[in-house]
Amino acid sequence: MSAEQAIFYFFSAVLVGAGAAVVTVRNPVHAALFLVLAFFTSAALWLLLEAEFLAVTLVLVYVGAVMVLFLFVVMMLDINLVPLREGFIRYLPVGVVVAVLMFVEMALVVGSSYFGLERFGSPPRHPADYSNTKELGGVLYTEYVYPFEIAAAVLVVAIIAAIALTLRRRPDSKRQDPARQVRVRREGRVRLVSLPAARRPAQGEGSSES
Which of 15, 29, 94, 118 gives 41 a disulfide partner, CB atoms 3.0 to 4.6 angstroms apart? Predict the structure, then answer.
């Protein structure tokens, strides 16, 4: 066994263990941290496959942004773990069946002579000055430039739609206008009313009425 294969099997074992810990640990913060470990090990495997752009993107986007936001939401919300545990036990048989089916499908795809790596052979070795980012950009902006532009337009439309849904005025919701709050003056909020002094009844006046 070569050193590269040993490193591959080591990171693969760590990735499988981290993925199993994500769905088995009870603390959601610990599950998120195990997911971060899974992302890091996946990036290491992509580096072994000479896909450094995907590895760096995985670390920057998912670990640096998505997981930080997820941890922030989990730590800010008061999550009740009892219903989560009950749901996990309830749907455990279905999850096991789905996991077994996925494992069988992956084994058939990876180990098959038609879809497996044996049909294509080992990937060729690239020189030291090979840039995966340059090759990916060349393919993305030449052969797949129209799908890339369509995806960018769809994302822009989705961003505009999300902003429009957030800023729309609902009749049943209360809103505050910071500009009107800043322009407020004392004359518009306070009104002085002159009331006549109340006359205290005489000593015998209350008894005569009763």
Answer: 15
